[in-house]
Amino acid sequence: MHEHLFIIARISPKPEFMNDAREALLSIVPPTLNEEGCRQFSVHQDETSLYLYEEWENQDALDRHYAMPYIAPVFESYKEWLAKPVEISKLTKLA
């Protein structure tokens, strides 16, 4: 059985960096969707946070994603932008 990996990441930028963070995340959607092993990758938001909803074929595909050259600048910017660390939930689909 193929065990897909589902991830919800909550990204909480400082208010003054919300637009920068949103634009950075939106800019990585097209290349991420073209990655081998990526099933879904979408950006959502509420009043204070941004959320990534991701589905990967497996952990190897996710690890390859984190190593992509367009990901490093976003992670680097997080050091300045974020009000608190990214909260990552790895989920297993039950039904």
Brief account:
Helices cover 36% and strands 28% of the residues.
Report on this model:
This protein has a single domain (about 5-90), classed as Alpha-Beta Plaits, CATH 3.30.70. The radius of gyration is 13 Å and the shape is globular. A four-stranded antiparallel β-sheet has the order 2-3-1-4, with helices on one face. The two termini are about 15 Å apart. The mean pLDDT is about 95. It contains three helices and four strands, in the order E-H-E-E-H-H-E. The protein is of the alpha+beta class.
The average pLDDT value, as a whole number, equals 95
CATH architecture: 2-Layer Sandwich
The helix count comes to 3
Helix/strand/pairing class, anyone?
Answer: alpha+beta
> Numbering strands along the chain, what is their spatial order in the largest sheet?
2-3-1-4
Radius of gyration: 13 Å
CATH class: Alpha Beta
How much helix is in the residues? 25-40%
How far is it from the N-terminal to the C-terminal residue, by CA? 14 Å
What is the overall silhouette?
globular
Number of domains: 1
Features:
single chain; 95 residues; alpha+beta; Alpha-Beta Plaits; 4-stranded antiparallel β-sheet; 3 helices; 36% helix; 28% strand
How are the secondary structure elements laid out?
Blueprint lengths: L4 E7 L6 H16 L4 E8 L4 E7 L2 H8 L5 H10 L5 E5 L4
Antiparallel strand pairs: 1-3, 1-4, 2-3
